[in-house]
Amino acid sequence: EVQLVESGGGLVQPGGSLRLSCTASGFTFSNYWMSWVRQAPGKGLEWVANIKQDGSEKYYVDSVEGRFTISRDNTKNSLYLQVNSLRAEDTAVYYCARRFGSGSVFDYWGQGTLLTVSS
Amino acid sequence: EIVLTQSPATLSLSPGESATLSCRASQSVSSYLAWYQQKPGQAPRLLIYDASNRATGIPARFSGSGSGTDFTLTISSPESEDFAVYYCQQRKDWPITFGPGTKVDVK
After folding, report:
1. Which of the residues A37, A46, A102, A111 has the least number of beta carbons within 10 Å of its own beta carbon?
2. SS3 for A15?
3. Of B11, B41, B13, nearest to B23 (Cα)?
């Protein structure tokens, strides 16, 4: 069974940093592009970042470019999102998602981890 | 950036009444459109990809159609577990974008 389990969320002050993690199981992690998608409280979904199987390609939404870094460790079946220079508008549930097939369609999602940016 | 617009914002249905949800793109996305279902407190679930292909395990009462800029998700005779929020998503161009969602609730 495919499982994605996020962790690392919490309350952070504006300007602060945090690292979100996602541990994968039930599939060959190194064969898949992976993504982070976020959802602000009561709002819709926003794609944040993608990373290729070997980590050689990374893509970000403009609003986080230069502040967030996606990475992965295939030996640990883990995906990460380093979030820096946090702003109130980064407050959201962050989902880890597996990219399906050859395009950015997300077939499995974790349960999400809540990041709250507030003083 | 490709903007997706969904209508209606809320759709109130009687059980068994079919639902038709619309997603319109600001420019052509070819057939690179997906639909997701999200229930309160849960992660989204992939229903349809590439406009009309049902994802694994998705019941046949869910169907998708369209191409270019206009797409439809149809739920034939919704069951109680189908009352949820539905999002469309395009993968034609960066950045990947989602629509604002349509909430399907019980009349």
Report:
1. A102
2. coil
3. B11
DSSP B15-49: TT--EEEEEEESS--TT-EEEEEE-TTS--EEEEE
Per residue in A13-65, pLDDT (tens digit) is: 999 999 999 999 999 999 999 999 999 999 999 999 999 999 999 999 999 99
Residue B83 has pLDDT above 80, yes or no: yes
Contact A105 B44 (CB under 8 A): no
Q: How many CB pairs under 8 A join A and B?
A: 55
pLDDT reported for residue B44: 98
* Torsion sign across C-alpha atoms B28, B34, B39, B42: negative
Nearest CA in chain B to A42: B40
- Do the Cβ atoms of B44 and A103 come within 8 Å? no
